[in-house]
Write a structure and sequence with these properties.
The protein has helices at 38-50, 67-75, 100-112, 136-139, 168-171, 245-254, 262-276, 285-292; strands at residues 14-15, 28-34, 55-60, 80-84, 118-121, 126-130, 148-156, 174-176, 185-189, 194-197, 202-204, 211-212, 218-219, 235-240, 280-282. The protein is of the alpha/beta class and 297 residues long. GO terms for molecular function: glycosyltransferase activity.
Length: 297
């Protein structure tokens, strides 16, 4: 029984009606939510633009900085759809809040998904890195066209940085050596197949709960956590969770739109930072891709 003063668990899964494929649909769309992310947007956008992203669908959750201008200047109107968005809502009968990201993700999928062959949902601290291929779509060829690809987070901690670095890909070169630490996944989906959506999992019309890793190995959502299935051979989902110590402390001070309390968010975030900053190993994949694409000067 839920105590009267406790916070109801957020609704994290939505059933959705997949959009109809539009004539000539193709390419990859990235969906993101921003709130005062201005200093990071240019590098993040250019990196994924170099990876072949066709469209950036960005939801602005009440930013007060220059993030919108940065995106417009970096991407232009042909690549950018920028929408004002307020991420709040709850079930009328139970009072359970809707998870803040899911409303935007479902809106993007149903309103824009019909134009694209693939859609992925990223935070600004996540970089989708083609390991050897020159584009994200080329790296996805190993998945055999499966409509539901699960990519495990590859975590990067402080990497010795006390203050912000010139670029993310240059400043963060040591990843958590164990993929199973703070394990979760981000998805690359065929939007015209999705029938249920959450932040870290989805269901498709043709394959149900089945998903594949970046090598095309098929599994279900429990099975994708098997160490034998975890893979970042062709595509790596870099998660720069902390950035520098200064930026991490500022992040904790801002809090999270999805957190129950500021204290619980800070406590969990510090524990996560400690876990992913334990045993590390060098990882230059994002830096090497940026160099291949001429992104660094």
């Amino acid at each position: 029984m839920r105590l009267p003063w406790s916070t109801p668990r957020p609704i994290r899964d939505l059933i959705v009606v997949p959009p109809e494929p539009e004539p000539g649909r193709g390419g990859l769309a990235v969906v993101a939510i921003i709130r005062n992310e201005g200093p990071y947007l240019r590098e993040w956008a250019l990196f994924h633009l170099a990876g072949g992203v066709r469209r950036f669908i960005v939801y602005d959750n009440g930013s007060t900085d220059d993030g919108a201008r940065v995106l417009h200047d970096t991407l232009g109107p042909d690549r950018l759809t920028l929408l004002p968005w307020r991420l709040a809502g709850a079930d009328q009968d139970t009072g359970r809040p809707l998870h803040p990201q899911i409303l935007a993700y479902a809106h993007a999928l149903q309103c824009f998904g019909g134009a694209f062959a693939r859609m992925t949902f990223l935070d600004i601290d996540e970089f989708l890195v083609p390991v050897e291929a020159d584009s994200i779509e080329a790296a996805l060829q190993a998945t055999g066209g499966h409509p539901n690809v699960s990519l495990p987070w590859v975590h990067f901690g402080f990497c010795g940085n006390e203050t912000p670095t010139r670029t993310i890909v240059e400043g963060y070169r040591d990843r958590c050596a164990d993929l199973s630490v703070e394990l979760n996944f981000k998805l690359v989906l065929d939007p015209c197949e999705v029938t249920a959506l959450s932040v870290h999992r989805a269901r498709t019309r043709s394959h149900g709960d089945e998903t594949v890793n970046d090598q095309g190995v098929r599994t279900d959502y429990r099975g994708r956590k098997d160490p034998a299935v975890l893979s970042c051979r062709h595509l790596q989902m870099n998660h720069y969770f902390t950035r520098s110590r200064q930026e991490f402390e500022a992040k904790l001070a801002r809090g999270s739109a999805a957190a129950k309390t500021g204290q619980s968010y800070a406590r969990k975030s510090r524990a996560k930072a400690q876990a992913i900053s334990g045993r590390t190993e060098p990882c230059l994949r994002a830096l090497e891709f940026a160099r291949r694409k001429g992104l660094l000067t």
